[in-house]
Structure formats: structure tokens, C-alpha cells
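Database export, one record per block. Field names are fixed; values are copied verbatim from the stored entry.
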Amino acid sequence: MKSIENETDKLGKVSVPAVKRREKPEGHLNLKWTYWEKTAFRFFFIYFLVQTLPLDWKFYRDAFAIDWTALHYRDIFNLSRYTPRFFGDQPVFADWGVVALLAMAGTLVWSRLDRNRREYNALYYWLRVVVRYRLAVGLLAYGFLKFFPLQSPLPSLSHLNTPYGDFTEWKLFSLTLGIVPSYESFLGLVEIGSAILLLFRRTATIGTLIIIPFLGNVFVSNLAYEGGEYVYSLYLTFLALFLFAFDARRLFSVFTLEQPTLPNRYQPVLTEAWQRNGRWAFKVAFLLFFVGLYGYQTYQGYLVGPYHYPQQPGLAGAEGLYHVREFRLNGKTLAASPADPVRWKDVVFEKWATLSIRSNQPVRLTSALTEEISLDDTDRNYEYAGTTGRHYYQYHLDTLKQVLVLENRNPKHQTEQWRLHYTRPNDQELILRGANAQHDSLYVVLEKVNKKYLLHEAAREGRRKALKL
């Protein structure tokens, strides 16, 4: 063939240099794998199948324990977080080591029994399908919790009246995200969009390009702020990296080396009608369940209120911050003093049945580092976890006798119970009298503080309007 390189056409212009064709263009389907390629594939095939498919009997125990006639989004969320666990209820990196040992043993046996195999193109295709859908499940589960800003709720009144230094790093991160629900919704939209891209072979690589830096940032944030989801976030990151590796070399060839590259378009031929119909039926069912049903249920949960805070209504009209005007212990009046170890500094009544007291009494720190969706108020520990600035009490209300029975919500102070009678001379005062957990008599006069909060005012007036305090 005559070369046209540097050849001038009739108009005197220089033509485009001819491209030299390769015998095996980049991206062409490899029909004969090397020994090391086959060995590595056998290892990763077993490894990722064990990591993604629910082979643990505890998964099915939890699945059968669900009341499927009254399904809650919590049930779907809990199932979506499945990973093989050999050392407890929470995932640890040691679990990965066990899976790796199982994969190594399986690789040795497989290599001995199937040594004459030339390639694993079909198995590689189906392994990517399994990993794509597993990663999509994980992204959708957290994505909808962020899209309908539930994962990090707005701070409570107690949080807004707690000194910054009394929060742990994890709690500060969560509260910081919670005060910008629109940004939290955007993060959820990124996860949901990436998950949907993963469900289709042609857009899966685009989905991984979006989600790898996103999940990497989640992993680093969990490490930096001492969160408890760093193992699971890294697990999802590795799934995304495995999927991206399929096209990584071809993308490098196109965008970095600027060389002609052919895609790997291998796709198994489904000859039977039931196979083709079953494939689409599974995809549609997946979308209806994890996007339609789960998305709808999280939206309903958003309308009810954040799952982090209790739902039992508190004392009507009592919500707010209270200054302690008078404090008597065993009949002795204690003057206000920043160093007093007993006297209360302030009290907050939430709109739900929680009362928090700030004082110099030590608080034993408790943490809630993993995402847990609890239906019972007693199990919802977000408001007091990660802070040492206040004692949080749930109270049982008897409006006829005007009695508050307080129980410390912190499990490390669970034996602390108080019984207090209350009177309300007017809308701004609340008087408590009774006995604390040590059976000391108490008489406390609380005066409501008409305090405005920038967060609430901004929500009322709009972010772009001037605030008047």
C-alpha cells in the first residue's frame, strides 16, 4: 500500500499521516490468557464472590426475621450492608484476611483442576455483573438516606447550646453536614446517579469514575473524624476499583498515550427467550425494589422526622433553653458559679420527651459510630452520643399529677433516675421540685431564654436574605 505520509494533495495541503495498524489492537478480546492472568483471575473471582454474595447464614436469619408485610426502609438498609463477618457483628479488616485465605486455597485447587483453560472471558463478564449490582445496592442504601437528609439531621436545641469543644470529631462532622441539608441531598444524588449508571454495562465505567473519588473521600473522612464506617467505605471503594480496572488500560491508552484503542465488547449470547426476558425482568425488579420501594419508604421516613431523634412528644409548650435562676439542694441555695460541681448551668427541653442538663457533673462518653436505624426511642442515641457537655434524660410525663420521671439516656448512667414535680406559673417559668438519683431534695426555678438561632432564622428567611437578630 502506498504511504500517504507527508503527501500533498491537489490543493497543496498536507494530508493526515497514515495510521499503522497493530496486529492486536488495544482493547481487542483476548482469546488466550497468560498463566499469571488466569491465576490472578481465579483468586479475584473467588475473593469477590465471597465478599459480595450473601453466603453467611446470619444474612438469611435476619432476612427471614423481617416482617415483609410491613417492610420498613431500615430492613432494606440493614440487608444492603451485608459483608462476611467472622469476628463479630461489625466488619473488620481481619474478615478480609479470612476471605483472602479462602480465595488462595480455592485458587490452588482450581489451578490444578483447570490448568488447560485458555481464557475466562465469560466468567469475568458475570463477575463484573455481580460486583456492579452489589456496589449499586450499597450506594443506593446510603444515597437515599442523604438525598432525603436523614443520615445527618439538623442539630437539636441541646446541640446548639453545647460548647464546641464538648463534641467529638465524629459528632462535629455529622453536625456540620446536618446544617446544610441541600448539600447532603446533593451527595445523595451523586450516589444514586452513580448506582444507576452501574446497572448498565455501557455506562458502568462512567459510574466508577464518579464514585471512586467520592467513596475515597468518605473513607478518608471516616479515618480523619474517627468514624466507624471506614471498613465498609473502603470495601465499596475496592469494588469500584475492581470494576474500573476493566477499562483502565484502554482509558490510559486513549487519553494519555493518544493511541487508537478498541473497546472490549464481549457479551455472552443469550440464545433462549427466557434468558433474555429474565435478564430484563431482574433489572426491572431491582430498580422497582431498591429505587422505587426503598426510595419511597425513605421519603416517608423523612416526612415523619429524622430517625436519630425520639418521636415521643414532650411537655407541651416547654420546648426551649432555660436559665437556672434558683437552685436548692437539700434546702440549701447554691449560687451560680462556673466551678460549682453540682449546680445546673442551663436546661433544654426538646420538642420530644428529652430534657438535657448542662453542669460540671462528669459525663461518661458514649459513641454511635456506625449507621443504625432504630424504631424504638430508647435505642436512638444520636443526641447524646459523641458529646460530654450534657446529661440527657428521657422523661415520662404524667400531666394529671404534673410529674416528670427522668431516666438518663446514656447507658453508662442508666441507673440514674429522678422523680420531679413541675409547676408552670407562666409561659416563661417552670419550677421543678423532687429528688435526684442520690435522693437529695431539689428545688429548681427555670426561666425561659428567648434566644434566636441563626440556623432557624436562616431557614425562615432564606439564605440570601439579611438576618435580623
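Remark 1: Residues 1-27 have pLDDT under 50 and may be disordered.
Remark 2: The chain has two domains: 35-304, 320-453.
End of record.
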